[in-house]
Amino acid sequence: MTIPFEEIEAQLLANPRVKAEYDALAPEFEISAELLRARLRAGLSQAELAARMGTSQSAIARLESGQTLPSTKTLLRFAEATESKVQVRLSAA
Known about the structure:
This protein is an all-alpha fold and 93 residues long. It has one domain (5-81): Orthogonal Bundle (434 Repressor (Amino-terminal Domain)), CATH 1.10.260. It contains six helices and no strands. It starts with a helix and ends in a 12-residue tail after the last helix.
């Protein structure tokens, strides 16, 4: 029997400790999702983007998976390679 992901997710997030940890990681997931959107918008494969940035495909995969947080320098190189613009914004909580 297969259980839908949404059902498992709801069960896990019903636990306050799990929910707190999940919410704490949200900014990191948001960064990786934005990197993926920029690459897709540019119509590039991970390998093509890596070549433009002078890095490896596996480095791009780590950035997009959230395993690695990019430095400001890496964000700027990523933006240039995808013809994107970096914007940083802090808002009131």
